[in-house]
Write a structure and sequence with these properties.
Distance between the termini: 31 Å
Largest sheet: 8 strands, mixed
Number of helices: 2
Number of strands: 8
Low-confidence stretches: 1-39
Oligomer: single chain
Length: 189
């Protein structure tokens, strides 16, 4: 098995003549398209869910059958499944030599997406989950920077990014971090 990347949008940032695209990784048959398109770099999203993740509708069905699991919070059952999934995805990316340090197109990874928009509803467990997710992601040894979008309290070693239409006034939560805009959307289709 290998990866096929499906794009959630158009180019989001330009680095000279290079383009960064945000891709959602899907297991698929081997497709070596990156060898033919050397100027495209990918920012990959490593999540267990496909949109609607915070409502539970986008998670794999079998997760709903785990007694006691609570999604997107400091819940040991959820964190165990999240870590297992993230470790598998990072391992598969590395096995396929898709990281930039291996000559591949992936220059950064994202853990969680727009969690800052719902974090407060989980109270302290939400804050603890963000810290755990960041530490877990970095601990996977991917060798590329990790990003959290719309996460004002992202730890120092995680890039917090603006994700949306109005990012002109965005400033990261630390002067040591780059300004990063990860999605330009003008509405839902």
């Amino acid at each position: 098995m290998s990866f096929k990347l499906m794009y959630s949008g158009v180019a989001m940032s330009q680095l000279g003549n290079s383009i960064i695209l945000k891709g959602y990784m899907i297991l698929s048959s081997l497709l070596n398209w990156w060898e033919q398109v050397a100027f495209i770099f990918i920012s990959g999203s490593v999540h267990m869910f496909v949109h609607s993740g915070t409502s539970g509708r986008g998670f794999p069905v079998w997760l709903h059958d785990i007694p006691g699991i609570v999604f997107c919070t400091d819940n040991e059952l959820f964190k165990e499944e999240m870590k297992r999934f993230a470790k598998k995805i990072v391992g598969l990316i590395q096995k396929e030599s898709l990281f930039s340090w291996q000559g591949g197109p992936i220059i950064m990874l994202q853990i969680e997406n727009e969690y800052g928009n719902i974090e407060e509803s989980y109270g302290q467990k939400g804050k603890d989950y963000v810290k755990w997710a960041a530490k877990m992601a970095v601990g996977l040894g991917a060798g590329v920077p990790w990003v959290m979008c719309e996460q004002a309290d992202a730890p120092e070693y995680i890039i917090d990014a603006c994700n949306g239409y109005y990012c002109d006034g965005f400033k990261p939560n630390s002067n040591g971090k780059p300004v990063l805009w990860t999605k330009n959307w003008d509405g839902w289709a």
